[in-house]
Write a structure and sequence with these properties.
Number of helices: 15
Largest sheet: 5 strands, parallel
Number of strands: 7
Strand content: 5-15%
Distance between the termini: 41 Å
Helix content: 40-55%
Structural class: alpha/beta
Shape: globular
Length: 316
């Protein structure tokens, strides 16, 4: 990211156009025309099928994700980019879902030149450089949107983002920004955060105690609590953020805590992935080795399925 962010946007455009003229007329057309798809090949049926098979214990995630994508992709000229925010505790599937999603949008998945990942720990490590990061981030996103209006931007670990930094991209998320003739409104922005996870866990536990099944949980049960938690938390990258205040996020996607039988399914999936025999004794032992909360009920996994892969070798 560093070098791209340091190059003036106009210079980026000129270099892109010169290279296109020399080597690839289609690339030139894609740099400047609003209808450029950049190899964008959404496979919603494949995405829905993979999520149904591989994503454990998250019916609300599948529902919200597929609804948001279908609504967005059916429009030839969207009014604004699709902006989604994934929230939940560690190990509940946020990073996994983002990887599966982009794999069903671009054949190269996370390796596509049009899929861009930001990590605050890697790209924005020092709070004292926040102003420089803001300028770099704005120019870098603008340059990539100029190159491809179908770009996907993943912002990981938003709970570790310096407060105020992310608001620099607000103009790209609304309905009014135009980038050198490119229809940036076809872009997709995804924020990934542990912030709000505690509230999601508490509400899921309360609903369970009220004898409501997780399939009955609706977004309305959680959306306002999550928004309030991330907006009012000084440790959150969305602290007092205009992105939240101006309602620029189209879909808040809550990832629920995973129960013991969900962890067992994760163990089975991992054994199959590694080409190992699915032994019920191993599945049970791995699932039992994980800590569960709250102390009384021991209902939800403290780490979701995050440590499953590393634990299998101890029991197989």
């Amino acid at each position: 990211m560093g070098r791209s962010a340091a190059v003036p946007v106009l210079h980026l455009v000129l270099l892109s156009a010169a290279a296109a003229a020399a080597w690839d007329l289609r690339a030139l057309r894609c740099s400047f025309m609003a209808d450029c798809e950049c190899g964008f090949a959404p496979d919603l049926r494949g995405l829905e099928c993979e999520l149904a098979v591989a994503l454990v214990g998250q019916p609300l995630v599948r529902q919200q994700l597929m609804k948001g994508l279908r609504r967005f992709l059916e429009k030839r000229s969207p009014e604004k980019p699709l902006v989604m925010s994934f929230h939940g505790s560690t190990g509940t599937g946020k990073t996994f879902v983002s990887a599966v999603l982009v794999r069903h949008l671009f054949p190269e998945g996370l390796q596509s030149p049009y899929v861009h990942r930001f990590s605050p720990v890697v790209h924005f490590p020092h709070a004292e450089h926040a102003e420089r990061y803001k300028a770099n981030l704005k120019h870098w996103i603008q340059g990539n949107l100029t190159n491809c209006g179908r770009s996907v931007f993943l912002f990981e670990e938003m709970d570790k983002m310096h407060p105020g930094l992310i608001d620099v991209i607000m103009p790209f998320l609304g309905p009014s920004w135009v980038v050198y003739g490119t229809n940036y409104r076809k872009a997709i922005f995804i924020f990934i955060s542990n912030a709000g996870g505690e509230q999601i866990n508490e509400m899921t536990l309360d609903l369970w105690r009220a004898h409501r099944d997780r399939e009955e949980i609706s977004l309305q049960d959680m959306e306002s609590a999550i928004s309030k938690a991330v907006f009012e938390n000084p440790q959150s990258g969305f602290w007092k953020s205009g992105i939240i205040n101006e309602h620029l996020i189209d879909f808040i996607v809550p990832f629920l805590p995973l129960k013991h039988h969900h962890v067992k399914q994760c163990v089975i999936n991992e054994l199959v992935q590694q080409g190992l025999e699915v032994r019920q004794g191993v599945v049970q032992e791995v699932a039992d080795s994980i800590l569960y909360f709250p102390e009384e009920e021991k209902l939800f996994s403290s780490t979701g399925c995050k440590t499953v892969a590393s634990r299998i070798s101890y029991f197989f």
